[in-house]
Amino acid sequence: MKKKLLAFSLALSFSSASGILHAEGNISAGKEKAASCVSCHGDNGNSMVSTFPKLAQQHSSYLINQLQAFKNGTRNNPMMSAIAMGLTDKDMLDIAAYYAAQKISANELPVLDDEDEDDKPAEKKSGGEDKIQSLIAQGSDLYRNGDLTREVSACIACHGPFGEGNKPAAFPALRSQHADYIIKALTDFKSGSRSNNPENMMHMIAKKMTDEEIKAVAYRISMMK
């Protein structure tokens, strides 16, 4: 409980945002401006490629923060940075408003990669739904409770009990996000290659997680609705 309260207090302390986050965007204008995003992020912000994030139903505050980060270079992605450089603050408001108004799609049950089982002895290979459900249960426990012994904060403190995020604090909604994208994001936070978050908080959390824990949490989040 103490660790949860600490994480929650940190979340509140990082809740300041620039003036653009408090303005309202135009959804219709945002749909037109988001036309070039469809190839990667899919119709209505529901990407069909699991390594590209779904943007549908994401908080506008978070989307604006990320577009600003791509534009000013604090988040590094050559393709997104080039796109963001051409966007005005009004463009960002409108695009974020459009995606925030869309409904995120549900995911199918994750499928284990063959490589997950290749290195295991035959008697320990499960390679099926039982293993997936075991990982999801592990991820659910870590999401809600963290790991006090290793100082891994519970995800629920910032991202909510149902992965709904925190709009005022610009903490992203995670529910129904692609598992592969979450794994990539956490791995990038863990390595330090992504660091555009308050006080590098996500790096401090992810660096203490094992690869299995990252996968387990990602699988659990991908099943949230």
Please, what is the oligomeric state? single chain
How far is the N terminus from the C terminus? 25 Å
Number of structurally distinct domains:
2
**Structure summary, number of beta strands:** 0
Can you summarize the main beta sheet?
Answer: none
Instruction: Supply the CATH superfamily name of the largest domain.
Output: Cytochrome c-like domain
Q: Provide the residue-averaged pLDDT.
A: 88
Describe, in plain words, how this protein is organized in 3D.
The chain has 225 residues and is mainly α. The protein has two domains: 84 residues, Cytochrome Bc1 Complex, Chain D, domain 2 (Orthogonal Bundle), CATH 1.10.760.10; 110 residues, Cytochrome Bc1 Complex, Chain D, domain 2 (Orthogonal Bundle). The chain has twelve helices and no strands. α4 crosses α5 and α8 crosses α12. It is globular and about 45 Å long. The N terminus is likely disordered.
